[in-house]
Amino acid sequence: IMLHSTLALSLLLIAVTSNLAMAIKKEKRAPQTLSRGWGDEITWVQTYEEGLYQAKKSNKPLMVIHHLEDCQYCQALKKAFAENEEIQEMAQNNFIMLNLMHETTDKNLSPDGQYVPRIMFVDPSLTVRADLTGRYSNRLYTYEPQDMMFLIENMKKALRLIQTEL
Q1: pTM
Q2: What angle do CA 132, 128, 35 make, to 5 degrees?
Q3: From which domain of life does this come (predicted)?
Q4: 62: which strand partners?
Q5: pLDDT higher than 70, residue 17
Q6: Beta strands 62-66 and 118-122: pairing type?
Q7: Measured between alpha carbons, how far is 154 from 16 in angstroms, rounded to an integer?
């Protein structure tokens, strides 16, 4: 009888733990990294201040992406951005990268409003580049998924500006 109850208890324990394991597994989502889906190979800074410091130190432009989780335009842009190899490679190698889901205290980052998505560049002299804009006159720093070539051009311009202005 002793053996029988030990066996029953073990089976019960196994059943409980495997159910628990399944419950835990179900809860487990992909870990939320600083990339937030914009590119896992890219090294992302955590704050605007850190971005400014790194830009100055490394002499690379800072790219700031303002977005929100529940914004469909942001999601669409994020997908296009993450899937574009040229953007990912440039972002990885030539830029200090930051994506933010909240506004910064720097009003220069919202010269024409606090809309999302918007992508702005800050050069290593810590100047926000108001001259690197997207295609839309009503929201100067917004990009749409079909604007990736335009964004690539602006990334290249941001890099050229550093060379010419130093």
Answers
A1: 0.79
A2: 85
A3: Eukaryota
A4: 96, 122
A5: no
A6: antiparallel
A7: 56
φ, ψ of residue 127 to 5 degrees: the values are -95, 125
80 vs 165, higher pLDDT: 80
The boundaries of the domain holding residue 69 are 53-159
Of 49, 62, 57, 52, the closest CA to residue 97 belongs to: 62
- Report how far apart the first and last C-alpha atoms of the chain are (Å, whole number): 86
**CA dist., res. 82 & res. 41, Å (int):** 10
d(CA 124, CA 40): 24
How many beta carbons lie within 10 A of that of residue 75, not counting itself? Answer: 16
Domain count, the chain: 1
Whether 83 maps to a domain, the answer reads yes
Helix axes 72-83, 148-165, angle to 10 degrees: 70
- pLDDT at 111 > cutoff 80: yes
Q: What is the CA radius of gyration of the chain?
A: 23
Amino acid identity of residue 91, one-letter, is A
Let me know if residue 62 belongs to a domain. yes
Domain membership flag for residue 155: yes
Whether residue 143 contacts residue 151, with contact meaning beta carbons closer than 8 Å, is answered with: yes
